[in-house]
Amino acid sequence: MKEEIVRGSGLDYTVFRPSLIFGPRDMFVNLFAKIIRFSPIVPILARRDAIFQPVAIEAVATAFVKSITVVESIGKAFELVGPETFTMSQIIDQILAVMKRRRFKVHIPSALAGFQAGFLEFLFPKVLRKAAPLNRDQLIMLQEDNVGNAELANELFGLDPVSFRKGIGRYL
């Protein structure tokens, strides 16, 4: 929807469609790492068979910056995805392996996750004066596959794909 507005604006544009972004200050891997440090159970909120292609923040930032000067990117859309596909359970396994930890993984039913997200969206801004670590929009995104073909972006922007385990191993 928003992409159509941009396309119809008459302005020069470049559209990026990143998958889950990971990096030193991300709110994804670091959230799970925190849960893993303090809890014997790791909740899995995504659809069991949903697949993701986590992409390093360095690749996303490089594509954004280079798109300013690479005129061939104008009027195009690019999928910014990593070189590997995982289910959410497999992503958690990768984080656990890097952290050298073992935890029980529990799939949370979507109705319960939605209730939890709604509660956190209410509680965090009111009590802690900051954004909730989980919201209903994130849950919607975790129910859908988030994969793509990075070939065009990698070639045009000179991106060097980083494996998920290697990337998170740098900062966990």
Walk me through what this model shows.
There is one protein chain. The protein has 172 residues and is α/β, with parallel strands linked by helices. It has a single domain (2-161), classed as NAD(P)-binding Rossmann-like Domain (Rossmann fold, 3-Layer(aba) Sandwich). The protein has helices spanning 2-7, 29-38, 57-67, 88-99, 110-128, 136-142, 151-157, 164-169; strands at residues 14-18, 21-22, 41-44, 51-52, 55-56, 76-80, 86-87, 104-107. It has a two-stranded parallel ribbon with strand order 1-6. Strands 2-5 form a two-stranded parallel sheet.
Indicate the topology.
Blueprint: H1 2-7, E1 14-18, E2 21-22, H2 29-38, E3 41-44, E4 51-52, E5 55-56, H3 57-67, E6 76-80, E7 86-87, H4 88-99, E8 104-107, H5 110-128, H6 136-142, H7 151-157, H8 164-169
Parallel strand pairs: 1-6, 2-5, 3-8
Antiparallel strand pairs: 4-7
- Give the ordered list of helices and strands: HEEHEEEHEEHEHHHH
Derived structural class: alpha/beta
Q: Which CATH first-tier class would you pick?
A: Alpha Beta
Mean pLDDT: 93
Strand content: 15-25%
Domain unit count? 1
The total count of helices amounts to 8
The CATH architecture name reads 3-Layer(aba) Sandwich
CATH fold label: Rossmann fold
Helix content, binned percent: 40-55%
CATH level-four homologous superfamily name: NAD(P)-binding Rossmann-like Domain
Radius of gyration: 17 Å
Characterize the largest beta sheet: strand count, sense, and whether it forms a barrel.
2 strands, parallel
Low-confidence stretches: none
Q: Any idea what the shape is?
A: globular
Separation, N- and C-terminal Cα atoms: 36 Å
- By DSSP, the count of extended strands is 8
The spatial strand order of the largest sheet comes to 1-6
